[in-house]
Amino acid sequence: MKxxxxxxxxxxxxxxCISAQSVTERSDDQRTLxxxxxxxxxxxxxxxxxxxxxxxxxxxxxxNLVAAGAAVEVISKVRLEGANTSCDVILGVTDDVAxxxxxxxxxxxxxxxxxxxxxxVFDDSHRLIPFDYGTFAFVYDTEAGINLPTSLQDLTxxxxxxxxxxxxxxxxxxxxGLLMWTANVLxxxxxxxxRTMTKNALTTASGWSSAYGLFTEGEAPIVIxxxxxxxxxxxxxxxxxxxxxLFSEGHEATIEAAGIVKGTKHxxxxxxxxxxxxxxxxxxxxxxxxxxxxxxxxxxPEAYDYAPVPExxxxxxxxxxxxxxxxxxDIIMK
Length: 334
Fold this sequence. Notes:
Blueprint: H1 7-23, E1 32-37, H2 39-42, H3 48-59, E2 62-67, H4 71-81, E3 89-94, E4 105-106, E5 129-141, E6 164-167, H5 173-186, H6 190-200, E7 203-205, H7 208-216, E8 222-226, H8 229-237, E9 242-244, E10 251-261, H9 267-278, H10 282-289, E11 292-293, E12 313-314, H11 318-332
Parallel strand pairs: 1-2, 1-3, 6-7, 6-8, 10-12
Antiparallel strand pairs: 3-10, 4-10, 5-8, 5-9, 5-10, 5-11
Helix pairs in contact: 1-9, 5-6, 5-11
């Protein structure tokens, strides 16, 4: 199936183009929007390569895109710059660190929020608006010839020693998601799981990019990632070599969001960008990020058939995540 846009997305193009007519009458400075985003979005294979030019063409608004690190680093950059920040929109803040950003953002009641399932809208004030989501899973190399684990606890077995790549919960939302996942499935037993796995794993990487890079380079046959990770390999590499492991005990969800920075002088442009993310950009965002679109009207390519859907999904508040990361730091890293 080719990439298609829903009726609402097609309508959005017309709406955005019409609104851009008034924007184009402003000065060049007023027609510029500065977006701080996470590094993967801005990278060579990130969604920015398709989303940003399409937005600029549809609206006439020039985007100054700044790669600002991971989600927490994006937030920290805006906070450190304070009133002097040039940022109008932050993009890629996940639900597990959302509370760190709320005081920096202005609410925006986009009319397209109605296309998002209610259980994905984690901020009722709409300071952070979801644009895609996914579920964490361990991905394995089908050419590695390993026995497949069927649960989190299986990974602690000796046969997987040196064969699993983890990610640090303190430095990555993927690592935080894994921590929350183990807590939801194992209860207080998450502590023993991490004590064992920090010794059993090949390494605990600082971020997803470095972890997944080691995995695809063949350093280990199992890595923490997403149920949708195989989609990327099917779409862009035409291979089904890498597959996601689905555990009957359930999987942890993650939601990525964008927000308008408080005090922006480009409010109309920022709103147009958010609306674009929720409509026209949904398929490109999903494809590039190997995530699911939040807009339920969007059809996806057949490659998504290779993304298994968990029967049980866990979701937590960012306060719970922060508390657990601190406990993990105190117990595991002491």
